Amino acid sequence: MNQISSFNQLPTELLHILFQYLRTEEILHSFSNLNNRIDSILNFHSAYRVNLQSIGKSHFHLICESIRPEQIISLRLSDDIDTPNQSILFLSYFPIDKFTNLRSISLIRIEFKSLHEIFSKLHNLTRLRSLSFNYPNATAEKLNQFRSTLRHFYTRILPQLEDLSTNCIDCVELIPCSNLRRLDFNGNSCENIKSIVQHAPQLQSITFHGNDFGVFRHIQPCYSLRRLSLTVGFSLLFIDKIEQTLRNFPNLTHFDIKSTHGMNDASMINGHWWQTITQSLTSFNFLFSMIGGITEKILDSFRTPFWLKEKCWLVVGFGNYLCTLTGSAFNLSYFEINHESPIYSTIPNNEIVQEYQFANLPRLISIKTLRLSWKKSLQSLSTIVDLKQIECLIISPSSFHILRDVQRLLPRLHTLELECDDSSSYWFYLFDQIQSIQIKQIRTLRFDFSPYSQEEIYNLSKLSYSFPCVEHIYSWPITSTTDMVDNLNQFKQVSMYTIVQHNSDLLIAQENRRQDMQIENKTPWNDIAMAEDQQKEDILGRSIERHSPQLNASKSAHIVVRF
After folding, report:
1. Pairwise CA distance, residues 254 & 286, whole Å
2. DSSP symbols for 326-342
């Protein structure tokens, strides 16, 4: 009672600050119905950031039934595989023009119908400054129809935007972008970047993901740009092309470039070449992969006074990768560590870092996804990687022992992928490591098992004790609907269940035919007769009901079958 009383005395301003660090569903679930004062604060809180991507149905309805649209300043909608048709349901709660205080909106794989509805009214939201969306997957005819809508939409919305992230910039010619400061776009071509640069006098940052950035070499000089980030796909890179690109941005201070497909000219990993074109930069980050791997000798050209003293740009090589460690760390989101591969660096007096000897390496502080084949302790990695930032962990059998330390050392971890090998002792080793422990923070489990034996299916079902809070399961092998129902009943919190089935006798339904079941086939849907699909749906539904009468009453899981 004293603790509740003390909490109730906290200033309202402090509670609003606290809410900034919590997801909307966490705020509502944790603070609702404590007392009248807290309920009033929640009711008048006007800075909710609502992220509906991969959200469970109960949390979705909690948000929609607890807050008003004018209380939301940031919104993320998703019609992705784990939340199909979410946008239609959401718009049935709130017309988009009611979000009068919305500053930012992200639309992920949104269906055309919802996109048309949203785009037709989005310009009425006068406070909107940030927009993120991509083309949905569709036929060429539908895409052409959408482009017509998009052109009209851009004309009305672009003048007020400060931040745009999209793969749809082929309709922006001659449209004023007077307030645009940040542009993030992806695709195989960037032809329209010329027009955008000419009509965006305040443009400060460009991020490009694609195969061909050659058009950057032919645009008019852009004096406003300060930051340029290029992630290049399957395109052979040469240092002279990069130099021509940078000349068109004379006031550039920050440059990032990533090319991880291995198709890079030798000049791209030559520190002397880079020194000649990066003199004026404040920060420079790169990540390259090279076929044949990285050797210690490659780093010699990055050990000059320019790199080590003037700029303090450190370089590290591991496996096939070479990257900078500017300042505290290069902004890598993915990192792969193998106990058999040495790590090289340009740190003075530490020319080669053999396995496990990482004491002098700068820490990688921004890694979100970590792939491990590691025989030592998880604690030993903390000198090179900030383990507290890891959200997704991919581990081979040689790393199963670290699972015992996950809760203590990886507080943000929510996704775990278990890789497989051909060892007959695989399952014995896994269960020996997780015996009697529960890793409650894991929300997503992914598996990499092929082929699938009955023993594997049986052992997988035993994982429910160690991972009791899992909501999403991917690539789970089954041989029958009995396996599917049994596994669903084992994992009480599952809302998304992706099954791998190689037996064509399994009867499945057509995608989105049932309200709470989604089925996905690797073959086109038009190759399957509609009547046959309806029969499959009916039989699968009856099979689930027959095997587990309580399942439909207690769960509303999306089920995806791949085979």
Report:
1. 11
2. -TT----SEEEEETTS-
